TrEMBL record, chains A, B, C, D:
Its EC number is 4.3.2.2. This is Adenylosuccinate lyase. Keywords: Lyase, Purine biosynthesis. The keyword Cytoplasm does not apply. It comes from Sphingomonas morindae. It is an enzyme of class 4 (lyase). The keyword Repeat does not apply. Pfam families: ADSL_C, Lyase_1. The gene is purB.
Amino acid sequence: MIPRYSRPEMVAIWTPESRFRIWFEIEAHALDAMAALGVVPVEAAQRVWEADRAAGAFDVARIDAIEAETKHDVIAFLTHVSERTGPEARFLHQGMTSSDVLDTCLAVQLSRAADLLIADVDALLAVLERRAFEHKRTPTIGRSHGIHAEPVTFGLKLAQAHAEFQRGRARLVTARAEIATCAISGAVGTFANIDPRVEAYVAEKMGLVPEPVSTQVIPRDRHAMFFAILGVIASSVERLAIEVRHLQRTEVLEAEEYFSPGQKGSSAMPHKRNPVLTENLTGLARLVRAAVTPAMENVALWHERDISHSSVERGIGPDATITLDFALARLTGVMDKLLVYPERMRKNLDRMGGLVHSQRVLLALTQAGVSREDAYRLVQRNAMKVWESDGALSLLDLLKADPEVTAALGPAEIEEKFDLDYHFRQVDTIFDRVFGRHG
Amino acid sequence: MIPRYSRPEMVAIWTPESRFRIWFEIEAHALDAMAALGVVPVEAAQRVWEADRAAGAFDVARIDAIEAETKHDVIAFLTHVSERTGPEARFLHQGMTSSDVLDTCLAVQLSRAADLLIADVDALLAVLERRAFEHKRTPTIGRSHGIHAEPVTFGLKLAQAHAEFQRGRARLVTARAEIATCAISGAVGTFANIDPRVEAYVAEKMGLVPEPVSTQVIPRDRHAMFFAILGVIASSVERLAIEVRHLQRTEVLEAEEYFSPGQKGSSAMPHKRNPVLTENLTGLARLVRAAVTPAMENVALWHERDISHSSVERGIGPDATITLDFALARLTGVMDKLLVYPERMRKNLDRMGGLVHSQRVLLALTQAGVSREDAYRLVQRNAMKVWESDGALSLLDLLKADPEVTAALGPAEIEEKFDLDYHFRQVDTIFDRVFGRHG
Amino acid sequence: MIPRYSRPEMVAIWTPESRFRIWFEIEAHALDAMAALGVVPVEAAQRVWEADRAAGAFDVARIDAIEAETKHDVIAFLTHVSERTGPEARFLHQGMTSSDVLDTCLAVQLSRAADLLIADVDALLAVLERRAFEHKRTPTIGRSHGIHAEPVTFGLKLAQAHAEFQRGRARLVTARAEIATCAISGAVGTFANIDPRVEAYVAEKMGLVPEPVSTQVIPRDRHAMFFAILGVIASSVERLAIEVRHLQRTEVLEAEEYFSPGQKGSSAMPHKRNPVLTENLTGLARLVRAAVTPAMENVALWHERDISHSSVERGIGPDATITLDFALARLTGVMDKLLVYPERMRKNLDRMGGLVHSQRVLLALTQAGVSREDAYRLVQRNAMKVWESDGALSLLDLLKADPEVTAALGPAEIEEKFDLDYHFRQVDTIFDRVFGRHG
Amino acid sequence: MIPRYSRPEMVAIWTPESRFRIWFEIEAHALDAMAALGVVPVEAAQRVWEADRAAGAFDVARIDAIEAETKHDVIAFLTHVSERTGPEARFLHQGMTSSDVLDTCLAVQLSRAADLLIADVDALLAVLERRAFEHKRTPTIGRSHGIHAEPVTFGLKLAQAHAEFQRGRARLVTARAEIATCAISGAVGTFANIDPRVEAYVAEKMGLVPEPVSTQVIPRDRHAMFFAILGVIASSVERLAIEVRHLQRTEVLEAEEYFSPGQKGSSAMPHKRNPVLTENLTGLARLVRAAVTPAMENVALWHERDISHSSVERGIGPDATITLDFALARLTGVMDKLLVYPERMRKNLDRMGGLVHSQRVLLALTQAGVSREDAYRLVQRNAMKVWESDGALSLLDLLKADPEVTAALGPAEIEEKFDLDYHFRQVDTIFDRVFGRHG
C-alpha cells in the first residue's frame, strides 16, 4: 500500500480495527447460531454482544502484545475478547478453527472491496458516457500501427472504452461472487464439531453464501480468479491511459490532461505540460497485475491447507484493491476533465493529403470492374507520392490526373469518395449497441 | 506446442489448414450477406463456394510463397483464393480489413478450444465423482501444514476437487462467452464500407455474437480474461497433482499413480515407482500460467490497434490451449486409474497415538466447565508426550491417567471422544452440496 | 511493505526522511562541484551545508504540503531547502533535472539495500556451513520424486543449500553493481547545462559510478536486472523452505522448526507443531518474485523517459527488498535452530527393506557379465516384492535366495552392496568443493 | 517455437537429433574416462565410438518407439545405442543416472544458445555503432513524457541503445557461465557409483565446468537466472522497438522501418506503411519474458529432485532462446536499414517556437540574480503563450519583449540561449564513454 496511491474508503477495509471487527461479528454470530441450536447458553451469546457494545473499539496494541507471545493471531484475539467479556467468552469459537474466522473475514473484506471497485467503474462509465456523447460527432483520425488509417470520431473512442469497462464491471460482479463465501466447517472442513447450520447462519448475516466444501480453508482458486480479474481491469485502465498519453504527445496534441494553476511540469523546463497522471496509471496497472501470478501460485496448497497463501494475501489483498481503486478514480478524474481539442484533431486528420480516403477509392475502382490487384496498384502509386510529399500533395488531385484511374471513375465519383461524413453513418448504430441509445 | 504434451483434436484447431478454412468461411459468408444486400452479385458468392468445393483443401505452401513476397498473410490468402476461383473472387473482402478475418477466426478457434476444454473438465468431473463415491467413507487423515490434523475421508478430498473443477467448468463457459465475438467492421471499426448486417450474418453462421464496438480489432481485454481463466484452471490441476504427489511419497504411500507393466521408474534404481505424471502436470501448470501476463500486456494496444498482440497470440493461443487440454486429460487418466490404499491410510491415521482426537477432548473439557486456556494446557501437555513418543504412547491412555482431566470427564466420556465415525456425520451433507446427492 | 514481515534497518532506507537526506546530499555535493568549477559561489555551497547542519532533520510534513500545491516532489523539496537556507539555495539544482536527484537517490537506496541483503546471505551461509559440518556424516535418505532413492547425508543437503546461496551472494554483488550508478546529466542527458565533472564528483561522494549515457533517467534495464536477481534468490529461499516443510511432515519428521514455549500451533488442535515459518517463507518468495515482471515492464520507457516506472518502483523498491531481507533473516533463524532427528532419519532410511541399495546390485550384476537388461529385470523382480511388502521383506534376503542372482554373485558380494558408508566416500570431496575444506 | 519467428541455427540446437548426439557424446566421453580409470575395458569405449561412426545419425523414430514402451527417454536411447553397438554398450551409463545425461545436455544446449545470442548482440552492437556515428550530430528533439524537452542528437539515442546492449551482452556472458556446468554424480549426487574424475573429464570435453554439488539434478536457480537474463534483454529489445514505433508515427515520422518493394501495408488501405517489425518485436519481448516466472517456479524442486521442471524446460528452453535470437536479428535488420529523416527531425524540433530552450533562459535569469521562483514564473508565463499558440509565437521574441526579463538579460544574451549547438558540446564526451572513441 503506497499512501499517495490510496483512498481512505478502501484503506479502511484493511485496517486492523476493521479486521478485528469482522472477526468479532463472525464469532458472535456463530455463537448466536450455536445458542439457537442449544449447544451453548443463550445468555453467553447475549453477554458477548453486550460486552462488545460496552467496550467499544478493539485494543489493537493489546492484541498484538498477546500475539507476540502466542504467535497465533486468532488465539490472541480471542484472549483479548475474553478479557473484555468475562467467562462467557469461553463458548466462543467452539468447534471452529482459525481459518473459519480468517477466511470468512477475507471474503467479507474482498466483497466490500469489490463493491467499491464496482462503484468506481460505475463512476467511470458515467463520465465516459457523458463525454462520448459530447464528442459523438467530433472527427478524428483513426490510427492503426500509430499510422493514420481512416476517420473515426472521438466519441467512438470513448464508446469503445465504455464497452470495455462495461465488461470490466460484469467481471467485477463475477469476481465478487467468486469470493463471497463463508466457511465455518472446523479443522479439516468436516463439521466434526460444529453444525453446518452455524455456517449457514453466519453466511447470511455476513452477506455471503456457504462454501460447498472447504478443507479448513476456502479454496484459493476463488481468490486467484478474483485477482486475475483485477489484473484484466488494470490492463483496461492502462489501455485508456496510453490512449491519452498518445493524444497528448507534442506532435499530436489532440487532448490533454487538465493542468491546474500552480502545477509545475518540470523543475528544469517551465514549458512542460506532461501527461503524468496517465503515465502514473500505466505504472499502477503493472502493480495491480503483479498480484495475479502470486494469487495463482497460492492455489496449490498442500493437502487440506498450508499457510503459504497468508503472507501473499497480506500483501496483495490490500495492495491490489487499494491500487486499483485509486487508479479507477484517477482515470475517472482524468477523463472527466480531459481537455479535448477538436480543431487539432481536424488538422491532424487533414495533414495526410487525403490518404485516409484511399480505401474508398480502392473499393470504387474494384466495383467499377478493375481487378483487386490493379486497383491496389493504382491507388498505392498515387498514395505513395502523397506520402512522400508529407501531405503537400493531394491524393484527390493526383487521382483525378491519373488516366488509368479516370478511365474507371469520373471526377465526381472520385470526389465523392473523399466525404468525411460517409465514415460516420454507423455511429448511431454503434452508440445504440454500447449505450442502448444514440441521442 | 510440445508434441509430447499435445492431443490431436486440439492441435487440429491450430493448423494452417484449419485457419485457412475458417478464413474462407468468414469471407464466403460475408460475401453471401453482401449479395443478399445487393452489394455484390449473387452469382459471385455462389461461384466462390462452388470453386472451393471443387478445389478442396488449401495449398498452404502456395499461400506461404505468396506471403513471402507480399509480407501480408490475408492478402496472400485472398490471392490464392483468387487463383482457384477466378475473377469473381474480386468481390471478396470488400469493405473489410484483415483483422475482420483474423480476429473472427481467432474467436472461432478459441471457442472451439474452449469447447474441448469444457469436455475435458466434464470427463474429469465424471471420474472424480465416481471415485469420490467409491471412497466416500474411506477414512484418512486430514493434514494442515503437512501435519496430521483430524480425520477426513478420501471421498471428501475428491469431492473438494470436484467442486473446484465445477467452478473451473463455469469459468470456462465464461471464458468462451468472453471471446466468442465476431467483428466485420472495417479498417477502424466504423463500418464505413461494410454494412453491420454482414457482421451479424457472419457472426450467426460462425456461432458467435457481434462485437458491440471494435476498432479494427476485437478488444484484447477479452483474450486477457480468456487466458487468465486458463491459468486459474491450470492452478487447480496443479493442486490436485500435488495432492497425488504427496500421497505417493514413500513415507505416506496412501495412493499411487498406476504403474504399467514394462514401465521403468529409473535407469539406475530398479525399485522406483515415481509420480511422474503428476510432477509433469505441476510443470504443465506453470507453462499454462505463463500465458496470463503476456495476454494482459496485450490489452493496451495503441489507438485503434497495433499488431504487437499477434506474435504473442501465435504463441500462447495454441500453446496454452493444447497444454491445458493435455493436462486435463492426463489428470483424468491419473485419477481414473489411481491406486488407492485404504489400509495404509488407516495405518497412517492411527500412527499418532490418537492425537488427531485432541480437539474433541478440548471441547469436552470446555463444555465441562474448564476454562478454554486450562483445557488447552491440559490437552497440550498430554499431546506433547504422545508427540515425543512418535505415537508409541496413546493419548487416550494418558488422558485417562491425568487427574486434572479426569476431574472433569469420566473415562467413558473420554473414550467417546476417540470415535472415528463421529467425524464423518456430515459427509452426506457435503456430498449433497457438491454432487446434489449423497448415495 | 507488510509490517510483520519487515526489519527496521531495511525499512529505514525507504523512509521519507532517508530519501530527503540523500536528495540533500546529492544536491549539496553537486553544488560543491559546481563551486569548484567556478560556476557558483563557494560561499553558497558552504552556506547550504551549514544551514542544513543548523536545521537538522527535514520537515516531511512541510515538504508534503508544498508538494500538494506544486504537484512536483523535487520542487517541493527544493522550496523547503530554500526556506531553511536562505537566498544561497537558488544555486542548488542548476542545470540539473529532477531525475538526476531521484534516480541517483534510488541508486543509493538500492545499493544500501543490496548491502543489507549481502550481509543477510552471509549470515545464512555461516549458519548453513556450521550445520552442514555438524551433520556431515548424518545418514539420511535421498529422495527423487518424493520417493526413496539412495542414501545421502543431511550435511550434503545443507552443502547444496550453501552452494546455492553462494551463487545468490555473487548475484547480489552483480545486482548491486548493476544499479550503483549516478546520473547528473540534465533534462535529456546531454549535460547541456551541467558539467560532466559534477556527475563524477557526486558519484564518488555517494559511492556510485557515473552512468555512461543517461536520458534524463538511468536506464531501467539495470533495475529490471536487480529485481530479477531478487526473484531468483527468493526462489532459492523457497527451495530450502520447502525442504524443511517436507522434512517436518508427520510421516517423515526428520527435522522440525524450533517450537518455542508458549507457542500455540492451532487454536483448535493442541497437538499441532506446524512448519509455519517455512510456509510463510514460501509465500514471501511469491511476493518477492511478483516484483520481477513489473520491473521488466518498466524498461521500455518512451523516448528519453516517461514516468510510468515511478509508481512501480515506489511499490516494489521497498516491498521486494524489505520482504527478501526479512525472508533471509527468518530462514537463517529457522536453519540455525532447526531440530534435526538423526534417529528418525535412520529409521526412514531403513524402512524400505534395503531397496535403496538396488542400484549397486544392478551394477555388480552387470560387471559380473549379466546383460544390462537382464540385470535390471533380476533386480526389479526382487525389488517389487520388497516394495509390495512395504519394507517387511528384505531385498538382501530375496537376492540371496534368487538363483539367477546367485549364479552371478556370491553371498558376500551381495552383502557388500548393502554397505551404507559406501555412499559417503565422496562426501569430503564435495565438501572441499563447496566449502574449500572438509574438516 | 513459432516457425515464422525462428532461425535455423538456433532451431538446430533443439532438434531430437542434436539432443541425442549430445547425449551420446556425454555417455561416450564418460566411458572413456571410466576406461582410463580401469573401471571398464578400454576396448568397450573404443567400440562405442567406432560403432557410432559406422552407424551415423540416430534413428529418432526408433528411439521414440522404444520410449513408447519403456516410458523413459534415456533408457530408450541407451537401448537403441545398444542395438547399434553390440554387447560393449552394456558398460555405458554405469553408475550414472538419467539426469547426469539430461542436465549436462541441457547445459550444452543452453551454452550454445547463449553463444548464438551473444553473437546476435554483437551484430546489433556493430549496427548501432555505425548508425550512431552516422547520426552523431543529427539534431532531434529529446522527449520526456512524450512532450518536447530539449535537443539531443539521433546518434545519442543510438549510443544509449548501444550502452544498453553492451550491458545485455555482459549479462549473456554471465548467463552462459551460470548454466555451463556438468553433473555426472549419480542417483543422488553422491558419486556413490561413479568417480568424480569422470565428471571432470566429461565437463572438459563438453566445454563445461563441474557442478560443485548436484542432487541428481543441476540446481535450477542457475536456469532461473539464465531465463531472467533473457527476459531483461527482451525488455531492452522492446525499448528500442517502441522508440522506432514512436518515431514512425504519422505525426512524428522522424524515422521509418525499411519498406521493401512489393510489400503491402494493409489489405484495405494502400497508403499504409506500418512499423510492423517493431510492433512484432514488442510482442516477441512479451513471449520471451513469459519464460521468466516459470523458470523461477522451477527452482524449488522437492528434496533431491522432482521432474516438474522438465516439461517447463521442454517449452521455454527452445521457445525463449529461439524467439530472442529471432528478435535480436530482426532488430538488427530494422536498425541497419532504418530510414532516418533529419529534415523532419529538424522540423519537429523547431515546431514549438523555441520552447525547448526555456531551461537555458531560466538558468541565465537565475545567474543574473533573479530568484529561482521568479525566474521560473517569468519563463513559464512566456512559454505558456507559445505553447497555446501551437508554435506560432516565438519564445525568443516574447522574452525580448518582456520587460522583467530584459531587466536582467540583454537581447544578445537571450539570443545566445537559443543556440542549438550549445546542447551538443558533450556529445563527444558521451561517445567516448560509450564507444571508447568519438571519431
